[in-house]
Predict the structure.
Amino acid sequence: MCKVCIRRQPQSRESDEVHENCISNAHWDNVCGGLQMRVATVSVYGYMDYHELTKTDVAISGYHDWGYNKAKVCMNKKDNTGKGNEAYEPAYCRFVVEADHNTKYRIANYKRTKTVTDYLKEHFNGVTRKEMMNELINDNENATAIKEAMATLYKAGYLLIDGSPRGQNSILKLVDEFPY
């Protein structure tokens, strides 16, 4: 199992790594756990068993009712991607895809992985990169956002590419076990 780096709030100093299967219900939000403070940036959040969270270096408020037993945690992009964080990137990308599928309001769903996966589900036998890009751009989607969504899906292990990874005529399709 892969690990991901978590914090309670995007600006918290304390962070720790946990197994990805410890976190559930990933979604985009700008309200952090604990004190329910609104923050300036939208991040991926999920819920973690409170008892498991007490075993980490992440600060907790202590306001949780042990009957509910879940605490909201944040997965910052800067902690989980880029140089030095390569081990966290596959799990983080899977949480980004889950968040895109779980978040109902479009403003926070800025990765567009749901747009790409919905399109690829319609073309389950595969489609060329050029064909998909042209059709989505004609539907007023942002080309850069679509390229980033494809990269996220690929890093998460959900996108199969037959041909050159960036080639216009490469065939794209979702893995058979795509969970959403």
The chain has two domains: 3-97, 113-174. Residues 3-97 form one domain. The chain has six helices and eight strands. The helical segments are 50-53, 77-80, 89-102, 113-122, 129-138, 143-156.
